[in-house]
Amino acid sequence: MPIANYLFMALDAYWGKRNFMKTDEPEGEIRKDEKKGGIYVIQKHQATHLHYDFRLEKGGVLKSWAIPKEPPVERGVKRLAVMVEDHPLEYADFEGTIPEGEYGAGLVQIWDKGTYDVEKWDENGITVFINGGRLSGRYCLVRFKREQNSWLFFKC
């Protein structure tokens, strides 16, 4: 499948949930140059419930997980991470307020940002080395077998 078609499908869910005439969130654009990773960001998102959006660049988009509690900075702390729709790369710089009535309404702030290196990435597990301001070191995401979008996030 050509990369432009893949990215369109990857961002289709993101675009379908937003009215860009009402929100300042970046619409994003289809990237033809597929990068192997690099951007890492966590955004603190005060929506209906406070949560943290963990994002890793892969395949021209930001793969994204919602984490209900503050991300772990020490070993031994595990967090639920629910995989959500891919976001455009431009979202890594987004901070602002999503207006009431819009999907994800509430304040979005960058909590941590940096880069990462992939050690392993497959359908059941991801291991990355994060170089951020708050998070630093090896982190793992492990998919729950019973739940398609539920993962466990921890410093490993």
Could you provide a short overview of the structure?
The chain is mainly β and 156 residues long. Helices cover 9% and strands 49% of the residues. It has one domain (3-116).
Walk me through this protein's architecture.
With 156 residues, the protein is mainly beta. It has one domain (3-116). Helices cover 9% and strands 49% of the residues. The chain is built from one helix and nine strands, in the order H-E-E-E-E-E-E-E-E-E. The termini are far apart.
Topology:
Elements: H1 3-16, E1 39-46, E2 50-58, E3 61-67, E4 78-88, E5 96-98, E6 106-121, E7 125-132, E8 136-143, E9 150-155
Antiparallel strand pairs: 1-2, 1-6, 2-3, 3-4, 4-9, 5-6, 6-7, 7-8, 8-9
- What order do the helices and strands follow? HEEEEEEEEE
Question: What best-fitting shape do the alpha-carbon axes yield?
Answer: globular
Parts with pLDDT < 50 across at least 5 consecutive residues: 1-8
List the domain count as a whole number.
1
Fraction of helical residues: under 10%
How many beta-strand segments?
9
Q: Going across the major beta sheet, what is the strand order?
A: 1-2-3-4-9-8-7-6
Distance between the first and last residues' Cα: 35 Å
Radius of gyration: 15 Å
Query: Treating each run of at least 4 consecutive H or I residues as one helix, how many helices?
Result: 1
- Overall mean pLDDT score? 85
Computed structural class: mainly beta
* Percent of sequence in beta strands: over 45%
Largest sheet: 8 strands, antiparallel, barrel
